[in-house]
Amino acid sequence: MKRWVWAVVAVVVAVLIGGYAYSNHRITENQYNTEMSNGQAAIQAKQYTSAESHFENALKRKTNDSAAQRYLDQTQSFVSGKNAMTSRHFNAAKNYFTTVKNTKNTSGVLVTRSKSRLATLKIVIKNVKKYNKIYSEAVTQNKATEYEASNATLNQLFADSEFTKTYYKNIYTKARALQTANTKGIAGEATSATTSSSSSSASSSSASLTSSEQSAANAYSGSNEYTVPKSQTQIDGQTITAAQINNARSTLSSIGVTPGQFSDQDIRSGLIAANKAGISFKSYAQKNYK
Questions:
Q1: What is the C-alpha separation between 224 and 262, in angstroms, rounded?
Q2: Cα–Cα distances in Å, from 196 out to 142, 240, 250?
Q3: 0.90 surpassed by pTM
Q4: Is 207 exposed, middle or buried (0-12, 13-18, 19+ CB in 10 A)?
Q5: How far is CA 191 from the centre of its chain?
Q6: Cα 27 from Cα 43, distance rounded (Å)
Q7: Strands, E, within 81-150: which ranges?
């Protein structure tokens, strides 16, 4: 065959290969754009699980794409913040929403929603501190058998309409239980458990309960700081151990973060989020806690 024939064949083959490559590139690009658009639409509709799936699919179309990764990270942080807020782990929620707010070149919708939740959290955290202080004072009065004074102190809580909101359910439940114990004490029916616990110091978040308080707390079927879903205590089906929590606290100390400001559940939430993001807890903490 003459050389010019081979040259023509070579040109035809090159054109076909180039055309295929270009066509394949366009298909991939279109699929990527579709997934990104669908993910943003899902965020707008508050369908966050769906949004995560779309951004993950976008990453499959364009591996290591920074935009898709930013959107995915931002969405996951927002979801973690929502879960932490629902579980009343307010400091952890604040960290998550701050991360979302500060993420650049991503969803403005999530930034706006995070700002709104941060404004709410500012009020809630302030109220939790105030309510726990009042409750602690009432507990101290109860232990001193000053039942009427204790109920008068509790009335400061019940007179506040904000106190009935779900954010404060755990404190509200304990306060009602203490009120019941005080009423029995006034009627001369205070239990020995009330006086036997008087040597325990009352703290803002974990005062000792009388037998009446404990009964009321046991009867409460809602969610509080001590009743979190199993999914928030496990990684890949394995319960997060005390050793893992202690190691995480050591990691926080090593990067200059005071670990004492976080509850054990805050630490669990961080470990779960780090695992979900496929990064070490240290990397996650440096990004979200500093």
A1: 16
A2: 12, 34, 37
A3: no
A4: buried
A5: 39
A6: 25
A7: none
- Segment 179-207, tens digit of pLDDT: 999 898 888 754 443 444 444 333 433 44
Q: What is the pLDDT of residue 52?
A: 94
Query: Are residues 174 and 217 in contact, defined by beta-carbon separation less than 8 angstroms?
Result: yes
Asked if 32 and 58 touch (Cβ cutoff 8 Å), the reply is yes
What type of residue sits at position 273?
Answer: A
Task: Return d(Cα 113, Cα 135) in angstroms, integer.
Answer: 32
Secondary structure class of 222 (helix, strand, coil)? coil
Handedness of CA 171, 177, 183, 186 (dihedral sign): negative
Q: Which of 149, 147, 138 is nearest to 184 (CA)?
A: 147
Place of tokens 């009042």: 134
Question: How many CA atoms are closer than 13 Å to the CA of 86, on its beta-carbon side?
Answer: 11
How many CB atoms neighbour CB 84 within 10 A? 26
In the structure encoding, which two tokens stand for residue 252, read together?
Answer: 């926080």
pLDDT in tens, 127-154: 999 999 999 999 999 998 888 899 999 9
Place 173 in a pLDDT band, splitting at 50, 70 and 90.
very high
d(CA 265, CA 226): 9
Of 37-51, 62-76, 194-208, 262-276, the poorest mean pLDDT is in: 194-208
Are the C-beta atoms of 285 and 257 separated by less than 8 Å?
Answer: yes
